[in-house]
Amino acid sequence: MWKASLEIKFYKTRAAEIVNRSLQPDATPLPRGVTFSQRQDAETLIFECATQNASTLLATVDELLEHIELTLAVTRRTHGGE
Predict the structure, then answer these.
(1) pLDDT in tens, 37-80
(2) 3-state secondary structure string across 13-74
(3) What is the domain extent for residue 59?
(4) Which of 42, 56, 63, 65 is most buried by a 10 A CB count?
(5) Number of domains making up the chain
(6) Which three-class secondary structure state does DSSP give residue 7?
(7) What is the CATH number of the domain that holds 20?
(8) Which residues, 6+ apart, have CB-to-CB distance to 11 below 8 Å?
(9) CA pair distance 15, 4, nearest whole angstrom
């Protein structure tokens, strides 16, 4: 079993809330054999993922980071860096 745990601390709680909400719909459905969870603790988002395949784990983490980056870019443009 391959596992990854990622904690991202944002500059303020509101930014973490925006990213957390924007990623909620992407959390399901998961491919067979993949587990994924996300939660928010103030300005920190915590992600945990596990799978039987290292390539799937890397692809999942890569996609997660891309979605976070995109969400932050859109937020900066539409909310002035909120």
Answers:
(1) 999 999 999 999 999 999 999 998 999 999 999 998 988 888 66
(2) HHHHHHHHHHHHHHHCCCCCCCEEEEEEECCEEEEEEEECCHHHHHHHHHHHHHHHHHHHHH
(3) 2-79
(4) 56
(5) 1
(6) strand
(7) 3.30.310.50
(8) 43
(9) 23
Mean pLDDT of 28-43: 87
Tally of CB atoms within 10 A around 82: 11
Task: Specify whether the CB–CB gap between 60 and 36 falls below 8 A.
Answer: yes
β-strand partners of 64 = none
Radius of gyration of the chain, Cα coordinates, nearest whole angstrom: 13
- Asked if 33 contacts 52 with a C-beta cutoff of 8 angstroms, the reply is yes
Read off the tokens for 17.
């809330």
The widest CA-to-CA distance across the chain, in whole angstroms, is 42
